[in-house]
Amino acid sequence: MSNRQVTPRTEGWTQKKDESGKPLLQFAEPKRGKPPQHLVDIDPADRAETIKGLGIPGFRAKQLATHYFTHYTSDPADMTDLPKEGREELVQKALPTLLTEVKRLKTDDGKTIKFLWRLFDGALVESVLMRYSNRITLCISSQAGCGMNCPFCATGQAGLTRNMSAGEIVDQIVRANKVIAEGGLGKARHDDERVNNIVFMGMGEPLANYNKLMSAIRTMVEPQPNGLGMSARNITVSTVGLVPGIKKLADEDLPLTFALSLHAPDDKLRDDLIPVNDKWKVDEALDAAKAYYDKTGRRVSIEYALIRDINDQSWRSDLLGRLLKNRNAHVNLIPLNPTPGSKWTASRREDEAEFVRILEGYGVPVTVRDTRGREIDGACGQLAASEKEKI
pTM here? Predict the structure, then answer.
């Protein structure tokens, strides 16, 4: 393991700073127009009344929900149980178009698809669909851009455009399910094959858009036909360490999987890699993660991107092992995925192996993540939502 410490710096772009010279953090949403209200944005108990307010008979709400959440369609032509006259207008009112597909890139022999979506106001977001042997995972976005300004992440380089609505968040899943049903991931392995694993590791900091995040998650776990009928245990919420949000998440009474993007065990380095560490230090973030486990009984995942000569030293693995011992956490090591303009790269294989060996010596469970989608800039940290991406 090299003892050389490379000073973290942004390369190929200029990191936004505040007046004091610290990396700028954007928590407040820039003022923009709001997306159109969608059926997803309405609590199931209120949908019939809300639909009535649009001049539509209340009982149509259940029909519309069935089409959207079980058949994954917003196309009026598919809804033959609705009256033909006025059907298009009715559907457009309740299920307005939220995402317009701009581009679709495939890799891994067709098992990974990255979608580029345009939102109603022109903002761009991405989601990544991945077929594994035992599950289909969708990595989804919760914000257009991100305000956390982490220098090794392509999304953070663009700053925060705006929060996404609950409807826009859920529509990524519905659209992905439609692609699966149409054979986009290859031949179905069983009837009703669909996304069964969600990771909020796309664009944005989920806990910075807390209310819309939770509204979307409640729709995901709501039984069909009023929601997607997904398991909360198969939904992973990731954060760079917004401690108040972690505490709120623990009180939601949902067995969600929680992931903390740590990336450094010491405050000196983490202040540079994760600017929000200036507000909530390593110990505070880990204490909040442990409290999440204590409250929910759900083991926490610690995300750690291994960056060559930056955070992969053996002494840092030793420190991480000591910090996590007896905390019921699982370390997910992520070989760094390169971003445009950066010379940072993944650790050497031998350094990665030593990092794993030291953690396991402390009894800390650790896995090295499969970096799916790297060839199409669809892996962790690479989502930049550019229309000029390679095909």
Answer: 0.92
